[in-house]
What we know:
- The structure holds two protein chains of two kinds.
- By secondary structure, chain A is of the alpha+beta class.
- Chain A is 50% helix and 18% strand.
- Chain A is built from 24 helices and 18 strands.
- Chain A has a six-stranded mixed β-sheet.
- In chain A, a hairpin with a 2-residue loop joins strand 12 and strand 13 (554-560).
- In chain A, helix 16 packs parallel to helix 17.
- The radius of gyration of chain A is 33 Å and the shape is globular.
- Mean pLDDT of chain A is 74; it is low at 136-258 and 644-651.
- Chain B is mostly beta strands.
- Chain B has one domain: CATH 2.40.50.180.
- Chain B is 9% helix and 44% strand.
- Chain B has helices at 65-70, 141-145, 157-160; strands at residues 11-18, 21-26, 30-35, 49-55, 58-64, 81-87, 90-96, 98-105, 110-111, 125-131, 134-139.
- In chain B, a hairpin with a 2-residue loop joins strand 10 (125-131) and strand 11.
- Classes of the chains: A alpha+beta, B mainly beta.
- At the A-B interface, helix 13, strand 17 and strand 18 of A face strand 4, strand 5 and strand 7 of B.
Amino acid sequence: MSMDLGQFHEVFFEESQEHLDALEQGLMALDPSQPDAELLNTIFRAAHSIKGSSGVFGFTALGDITHVMENRLDEWRKEISQPQASQVDHLLTVVDALRHLVSVYQNGEPVDEQWVQDTIDGLNAKFDAYEIKNSEQSQSSEPVVDEDDDEGFGFFEPLEAEAEADDDVGYGFFEEEPAPDEDEGFGFFEEPEPEAEFAAANTEAEDEGWGLFEEPGSSDTSPPQVDAVESKPTETKAPAKSAVSNPTTESAQAAQKSGGTIRVNVEKVDSLINLVGELVITQSMLAMVGQNLDDANQEKMNGVIETLHRNTREIQESVMSIRMLPISFVFNRFPRVARDTAGKLGKKVNLVIEGGDTEIDKGLVEQLADPLTHLMRNSIDHGIESPSDRLQAGKPETGTVRLSARQQGGNIIISVIDDGAGLNRDKILNKARERGMTVNADSPDEAIWPLIFEPGFSTADAVTDVSGRGVGMDVVKKNLSNLGGRIDIDSVPGYGTTLSLILPLTLAILDGMAVSLGSETYIIPLGNIVESIQPNAEQVKTLNGDELLNVRGHYWPVVRLHRVMSVRPRFERITDGIVILTESGKRRFGILVDELLGQQQVVIKSLEQHYKRIPGVGGATVMGDGQVAFILDLESLGADVAATATLEDAS
Amino acid sequence: MTDEHDVDSQQEFLTFLLGDEQYGIDIMSVKEIRGYDNVTRIANAPAFIKGVINMRGEIVPIVDLRIKFQQKQPTYDEFTIVIVVQVHDRLVGMVVDGVSDVVGFTPEEIRPSPDFGTAFDSRYLSGLGSKDKDMVILVNIEALVTSQELGLIDQNRSTYS
């Protein structure tokens, strides 16, 4: 049996993650002062689902914590108690604890029972503490209530409810609603039994010896109570749904959800993409063969090949789209990041998310999370001012951070926009000088802002535990360029900063320029190419033995690709070949090749899967004739180039 | 060829020729046997690493065992044979002088490998199989492919990928 369950574990872990995400998002969206009943139900269901399935698999610790969580959520759901912001915060930390626990189970590590108990105790304490406070408050606000009457109050009322079926207070007892002065009665419902509906209420009442209940006979009292349950929803706004209707909505929604998608292993998708890539190559080889027919069938052949071409292209596009995910997969974590960061810093921030349905390659989605988290924290820490500063500056107390994604041609542009103080030009310049960099005070903003990407560069006055240590922006930039993306900064003092990440739509396809070198072909990423020139003799200058190319006043170092790749080229001299001017990170250099073969989209293949990294090469691709061509890695190619392209040159 | 009853206990090897010596590799590690064409040279790689090929979308390195272990300058034509082997998830193509046969050996027919007299270092050998008049040097393909000597794998690879 246990052997059979094993294969479902992975599904369970995945689903748990989804439920935890739902739980977190629900809690984030919850407005404690006006809890939305449907939202509470969603949150409750998420906790309930985790509890249910963890029980099946014997992940008891997970079940224990979610069980308590579920009970507490049920109190909110049934309006026994009112959610408090601090409780929501605490529940979020419990969600984190659950995530941790899921990974513990996933890795097959032992569970720290004490930690589990502490988590449960902490959760209970948080809720109990408030309830005591709550009842104390309400007690003091009640004029004169006898202690004894107080206890019995809730139970007494149902008797009278016989006459008034829709009596609120009477209802309250059975639906476990917190009548404010229902001191003892309330505590009694804290028993961790979320499903404790009528039956439990009855038996508990009997256990406690509330003889009052017995006397009238349950057959007499029940009908009006049921009525009360049914009629209650019409009386209050956003009522908790009756217990009976819940399971149906739950299962209906679950069915709806599972009907739309299937889970597929990424490896299967990738191998499909690979095979389609092969199909495209075969198709183009077939096209080449087909061109050399010399009889009447030529035209027919061309037609068929044209159809094949169209079909393979469509297959390729739709297969690629399987890998695409809406970017909301990354964005969804940011309300939490913003909330936590702002909370820590005592700032008020409103996060606006736009374009969450923009689709992006799955591989990118996973690698975007960290850089974006960093930028988001930076925006809140360095960008958004403290509430008092904002008021002084005539801005609303609450800052706005806008996280938006949109597609532009073959790129995805993700922007983090804050309406904070903007970058401080003088501070950046001073910091740069402090660090011994040569900077020009007259440089335009566009030349100044990128300095914040220098390693160890931070202009924050104080190092906080959120940011300001000066590690990070350089890493963000590096990570992005590894993904084939870049980052733009736009900042206006007093009005805020916009950081835009420009990324390729997919990691798997690259727009490239094919170049020839001797008998070999290489691909240069098109995004890095500034222009291609055939230099004349006057443009070539020599500095310390290194040849530089003067292009309209800028000096470009030249990398002779044939030397890097040890090939015998057709042209040794710069003036005979073609120099492709490229820009990668802050390095700008030219690459000497024999000839441009043309621009084409190439499918990027990993070299490291079966071999190892090759210096100067970022990946490989398969050309139309089935031959492998290497894609140049400009970062590593340019590493040897003296950093001639310093700030003065760039400006 | 073989008796019914010892089929279970015997291991099958694909045998190939390097010069005059007959070698065998576990048939289960052989992915395919193909001709030698469309090899893209890798800059600054050792001479025995001929380059990479595209094998149904996978970029597979090609090692010429003739150069590596025979120290000779081989020729490449339409009869040149590449055995593509799979070790764990990695594919490697090996150029050899020729593929001869598939031979099954029972454990009794496999003796410890000799310490000398073969082109291969004994580290990469798993034994010596003999049946009738055949003598096959059995190669431990995993040890060979993952060896530092071939340098097919970044030694620090596991730390980041």
